[in-house]
Amino acid sequence: MIMANITTMNGFLLMGFSDIRELQILHGLLFLAVYLLTLAGNLIIVIVTTVDQHLQAPMYYFLKHLSFLDLSFISVTVPQSINNSLMDIGYISQGQCILQVFFFTSLGWSEFSILTVMSYDRYAAICFPLHYEVIMNPNKCKWAVIVVWLSGSICGILYITTTFSITFCKDKIIHQFFCDVSQLLKLSCSNDYLGVIGVAIFISVMAFMCFTSIVFSYIHIFSTVLRIPSAEGRSKAFSTCLPHLFVVSFYLSTGAFAFLKPTSDSPTAFDLMISIFYTVIPPSLNPIIYSLRSEAMKKAFRKLLLGEQITRKQTFLPCC
Questions:
Q1: Where is the signal peptide (predicted)?
Q2: Does the chain have fewer CB atoms within 10 Å around its N or its C terminus?
């Protein structure tokens, strides 16, 4: 009945992963477990980097915002997918779809932007240690974060404005577990999707500029680190930038593959798995990667778990 009326309905039908009820329940429960663990891990990072006196440097300030972006990003798509799987429904209203597209694109861009800022922070810390506090002073850090969030909002507005100006004349069936822009474009019967293509090209150019900045930063970082005479010094320097480099590489590789891969009229399980790799895996891995590589983070976690009192240091970034 839903399939018959989906063209005339106001919303869309998300096909998800399977039509088999048992697999739907399994998918819902697995997503629920990953979602709760991701929320817990990122919330812990937000809490400890806010209250611990040893975690008030710019690196942890940006990490706090990355974690907040992660828990927000995964909350855009996964709860809806969990509900659809467990309740055996696939319908999503147009209003919900618009919100998903806005927050998915805005938070996705904001995450890439904050990763770019974090690479510059590591570049300044390792290549210009004597001038680091001047380069990354509290005011500049705050403005960097403001630009990250504003640029993400602009990206989201551009996408929803162009995407939902399209006339959807085909069956409103989305072969994904969320409102994917590339799938929405396939529902158009005319060339009114060219605005979305223009936005995608503009965002791609901006993303390439950010990528170039990240590459530039790490070329200088590695050349500087390799000139450090002591093995201990090199190890300490690498330990602060390798987690970030891994996150950037994983995020960019999966996102670029999904963006460049042509969409299919009959998406396979492989296509759905790729979407998981850039929507679900990065937010869930980030807390593990950053906490395992940072002794300061592990020490703060232990304090939090043991219920020890954590006092906040009123020195650097006091109101952030």
A1: none
A2: N
